Amino acid sequence: MTSLIIPTYRNPLFLDICLKSAIEGQCEINEIIVAVDGYIEESQSILDKYKDDIKVLNLGQNQGMQMALNLGVYNASYEIICIINDDNVLSKGWDITIKENLKKGEVLTINQIEPTGPGIFNFPVNDFGKTPETFDYKGFLKYEEQIRQDKSTKDGGIFPFAMWKTDYMIVGGFDTLYQSPFICDWDFFLKLDLNGLTFTRTHKSHFYHFGSSATKNGKEGEAFKATEGPAADTFAYKWGIAPSLFENHSHNPKNKQLIKGIRYE
Q1: Residue 164 belongs to a domain with what CATH number?
Q2: What string of pLDDT tens digits covers the 265 residues of the chain?
Q3: Is the residue at 104 inside a domain?
Q4: Reduced to 3 DSSP states, what percent helix, strand and coil does the chain have, rounded to the nearest 5?
Q5: Which residues of 121-132 are buried (b: 16+ CB within 10 A; e: fewer)?
Q6: Distance between CA 128 and CA 140 in Å, rounded?
Q7: Handedness of CA 154, 158, 160, 162 (dihedral sign)
Q8: Residue 21 near residue 113 (C-beta atoms within 8 A)
Q9: Where are the beta strands (DSSP E) in the chain?
Q10: Structural domain contains residue 261
Q11: Is-contact 177 226, C-beta < 8 A?
Q12: Rounded distance, CA 166 to CA 219, Å?
């Protein structure tokens, strides 16, 4: 079984669809942990709606996505964890896809369908709605099953992803030094890469992603956007390289040079 970790921040309508799909789409009874990063009163009715099927972590005040994720994982009961955004919609059998395809020493990205694009991660594009009110849930489920492919590619290392909790703990999870929900994931994946993990994307299942509904496109969008530049500066200061994408979406330049005491290879 899997521990599904969902950080959420002032996004109740998206969270509603996310939880509905997670519960209805699972084949086993998994652990679903919602880490509420402040303003829990805004999501309380949704949390109450699914209270028999979820566990809730209330961070009290806003502490950032990194802290929400770390606390969610720390409280996970199963060996396999899956981390998603609260504006993801899960596919049928999402848990079996993870269980059957995640290997030891691997980070498994689940492919996504997005309403706009194509973006840098080359997700399939099909607009089933950009808001909860307009979302075509049945249409998404039908289309998602039609485009499944029995293949995996070596371009993972992006959200949403599943991995072993042990590997998450070994690298210390997400670095709370970043005062932003951006770039911190690049930091996390680079740590895993340097620790010898591999990154795979499965095309056997697809989640829907509305696209930064709680950050860049959310109610505090401009404030979130303003944190991206400083976060990139923090990454460069820490690692001695700019946050860039290399071959197969890798965050590791693999240039075998010694930079700030780190040999990238």
Answers
A1: 3.90.550.10
A2: 999 999 999 999 999 999 999 999 999 999 999 999 999 999 999 999 999 999 999 999 999 999 999 999 999 999 999 999 999 999 999 999 999 999 999 999 999 999 999 889 999 999 999 999 999 999 999 999 999 999 999 999 999 999 999 999 999 999 999 999 999 999 999 999 999 999 999 999 999 999 865 555 666 668 878 999 999 999 999 999 999 999 999 999 999 999 999 999 9
A3: yes
A4: 35, 20, 45
A5: bebeebebbeeb
A6: 6
A7: positive
A8: no
A9: 2-8, 31-36, 55-58, 80-83, 88-89, 106-113, 152-153, 161-164, 198-209, 258-259, 262-263
A10: no
A11: no
A12: 35
Tell me the whole-structure pTM to 2 decimals. 0.95
Strands 262-263 and 2-8: unpaired
249-to-75, 186, 196, 200, 230 alpha-carbon distances in Å: 30, 10, 16, 11, 22
Q: At what angle do helices 12-25 and 137-146 cross, to 10 degrees?
A: 50
Q: How far apart are alpha carbons 191 and 250 in whole angstroms?
A: 11
For residue 260, being part of any structural domain is answered with no
pLDDT value at residue 135: 98
Do the domain assignments include residue 126? Answer: yes
Contact indicator for 55, 75 with CB cutoff of 8 Å: yes
Please give the tally of structural domains in the chain: 1
DSSP state of 133: G
